[in-house]
């Protein structure tokens, strides 16, 4: 399913493949069979002004929703009290710093997400009433809340842009790509994370960007094989003679970039590592698929021999990227556990030159890992993985009953709640994606499902240990869940052809009906988002209006 629809007797359009006699006639270029050309075809890489215009409209909508009113509510909400302070410490001293006690902070998440939050504070200013810190921005001075939420809003907007372009490339449709971006942009879960100084929106961004780089790598490798076949390559020959030309120009640069981006994801939260085996499997399956389509005799053996070294190189880049994000800790001497002389009662630390900082960083990671494995204290808003897609227990980021709303009692809340109609579509969409992907042997369905699994399934394992978990742990899986919905919408608009070529009028009518169904669904999601928008951004409502939006009663309160 993941490697591609290259099974005998069926083309990528779902119609019967040409027989040997037909293939000899249906060739192009230098005798390459037309069916091979179709199997190696990719999205046209030329600039498409109309597609970018449509992309820009979707991204503009997402940006307006994320930046307008970003400074409210006032003060630090939910875990901003930790991340905004740690971010300022990184910008000010190179490490997370406890200004109240004047010492390094012990933190259990890597620093990259907090570095990004800190850049917004550097640009627009930072203020902390408890520690009496008030620093104007280097670029401009705004409400301090804007400073520590700015990077999250940028990350949320960029993730919408990425999903539009990834969706367009996956589905070969600007309409479906824009539908994916619009659904993500109109999701309340994504919106709340994009307007709050937490780490999960950055993890989502880097995981999605790494996946996008791998999709580009897939297309680049297929174009490389197509060019080689056009130039007379015989893929049945053994060794280098049956492979495309080597050289630095033909290196898998996008795959190496994916390694860097996955390193960035792990530098935000360790849970980014769950996507490593999924992405490695995608690369291998896709490389096997391209060799099988080209006519290589032993596609599995050749793919493993050729690509494992490049996967290892991407892994080295991932580790190097992770270490670079700790540069403030490694190059200074103020970080927690950085110097053994400051922690005489902590065994395992070392002040040896060069190797000492790495030893101490390892000990720091061991301590942080121990914290995570013992995180089982009950919490009001904790939830289990099987509740997440059902919106069984969203997290309240902010609540206030103060203010004038024209009613006897008022309510203002920011609730980390996915747009209900969209999220309650995820499970049916996943089932349909499994069915359609298996029936069509469609690599896109396999890739989407594998990434959803990487984002959700590990948490089911931790649930067996009773670990305290929250719904925002599902954030990295969200773009792929949206892609599953859009994949099904695409199937409704353009079902796979049968062995009998349908009439043009039948195809047109089917696409018209499918387009109406898909358009109506997106419109209903937009209306549902608009109804819940006040509790995504903390708008003051009469208490009765707020209560009407608590569809699952106590589970959402």
Over the alpha carbons, how many angstroms does the gyration radius reach? 26 Å
Shape: globular
- The overall strand count is 9
Beta strand %:
5-15%
User: How do the helices and strands follow one another from N- to C-terminus?
Assistant: HEEHHHEEHEEHHHHHHHHHHEEHHHHHEH
Question: Multimeric state of these chains?
Answer: single chain
Distance between the termini: 42 Å
Q: Strand order, main sheet: write it out.
A: 7-8-9
Structural class by helix and strand composition: mainly alpha
List strands and helices in order, with pairings.
Blueprint: H1 20-25, E1 27-28, E2 32-33, H2 34-39, H3 49-67, H4 80-93, E3 97-98, E4 103-104, H5 112-124, E5 125-128, E6 133-136, H6 144-171, H7 174-185, H8 188-194, H9 200-230, H10 253-266, H11 275-294, H12 299-325, H13 327-331, H14 355-373, H15 385-388, E7 395-400, E8 410-416, H16 420-423, H17 426-440, H18 443-463, H19 478-493, H20 504-537, E9 541-542, H21 543-548
Antiparallel strand pairs: 1-2, 3-4, 5-6, 7-8, 8-9
Helix pairs in contact: 3-6, 3-7, 4-5, 5-6, 6-7, 6-8, 6-9, 6-19, 7-19, 8-20, 9-10, 9-11, 10-12, 11-12, 11-18, 17-18, 17-19, 18-19, 19-20
Short description:
Helix content is 58%, strand content 6%. The protein is mainly alpha-helical and 557 residues long. The strands form 4 sheets. The protein has a 3-stranded antiparallel sheet with strand order 7-8-9. Strands 1-2 form a two-stranded antiparallel sheet. It has a two-stranded antiparallel ribbon with strand order 3-4.
């Amino acid at each position: 399913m993941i490697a591609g629809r290259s099974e005998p007797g069926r083309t990528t359009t779902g119609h019967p493949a040409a027989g040997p006699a037909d293939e000899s006639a249906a060739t192009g270029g230098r005798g390459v069979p037309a069916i091979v050309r179709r199997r190696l075809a990719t999205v046209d890489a030329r600039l498409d002004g109309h597609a970018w215009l449509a992309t820009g409209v979707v991204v503009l909508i997402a940006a307006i929703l994320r930046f307008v009113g970003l400074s409210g509510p006032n003060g630090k909400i939910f875990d901003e009290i930790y991340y905004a302070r740690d971010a300022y410490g990184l910008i000010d001293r190179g490490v997370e710093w406890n200004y109240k006690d004047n010492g390094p902070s012990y933190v259990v998440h890597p620093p990259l997400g907090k570095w990004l939050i800190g850049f917004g504070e550097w640009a627009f200013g930072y203020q902390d009433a408890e520690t009496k810190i008030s620093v104007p921005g280097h670029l401009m001075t705004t409400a301090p809340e804007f400073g520590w939420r700015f990077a999250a809003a940028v990350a949320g907007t960029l993730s919408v842009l990425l999903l539009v372009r990834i969706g367009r490339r996956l589905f070969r449709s600007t309409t479906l790509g824009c539908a994916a971006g619009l659904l993500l942009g109109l999701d309340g879960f994504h919106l709340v994370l994009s307007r709050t100084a937490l780490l999960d929106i950055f993890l989502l961004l880097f995981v999605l960007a790494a996946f996008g780089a791998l999709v580009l790598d897939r297309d680049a490798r297929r174009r490389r094989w197509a060019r080689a076949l056009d130039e007379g390559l015989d893929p049945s020959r053994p060794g280098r003679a049956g492979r495309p030309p080597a050289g630095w120009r033909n290196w898998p640069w996008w795959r190496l970039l994916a390694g860097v981006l996955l390193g960035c994801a792990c530098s935000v939260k360790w849970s980014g590592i769950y996507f490593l085996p999924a992405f490695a499997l995608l690369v291998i399956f896709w490389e096997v698929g391209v060799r099988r389509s080209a006519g290589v005799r032993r596609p599995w053996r050749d793919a493993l021999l050729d690509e494992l070294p490049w996967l290892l190189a991407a892994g080295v880049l991932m580790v190097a990227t992770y270490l670079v994000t700790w540069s403030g800790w490694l190059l200074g001497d103020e970080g927690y556990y950085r110097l053994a002389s400051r922690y005489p009662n902590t065994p395992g630390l070392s002040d040896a030159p060069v190797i000492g900082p790495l030893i101490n960083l390892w000990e720091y990671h061991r301590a942080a890992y121990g914290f995570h494995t013992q995180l089982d204290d009950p919490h009001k808003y904790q939830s289990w993985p099987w509740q997440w897609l059902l919106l069984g227990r969203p997290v309240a980021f902010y609540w206030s009953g103060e203010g004038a709303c024209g009613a006897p009692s008022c309510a203002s809340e920011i609730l980390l709640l996915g747009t209900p109609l969209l999220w309650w579509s995820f499970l049916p969409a996943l089932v349909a994606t499994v069915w359609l992907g298996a029936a069509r042997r469609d690599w896109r369905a396999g890739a989407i499902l594998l990434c959803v699994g990487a984002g959700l399934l590990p948490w089911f394992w931790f649930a067996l240990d009773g670990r305290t978990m929250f719904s925002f742990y599902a954030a990295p899986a969200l773009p792929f869940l949206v892609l599953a919905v859009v994949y099904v919408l695409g199937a409704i608009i353009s079902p796979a052809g049968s062995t009998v070529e349908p009439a043009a009028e039948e195809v047109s009518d089917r696409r018209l009906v499918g387009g109406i169904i898909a358009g109506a669904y997106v419109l209903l999601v937009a209306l549902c988002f608009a109804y819940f928008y006040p509790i995504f951004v903390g708008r003051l409502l009469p208490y009765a209006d707020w209560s009407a939006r608590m569809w699952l009663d106590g589970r959402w309160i």
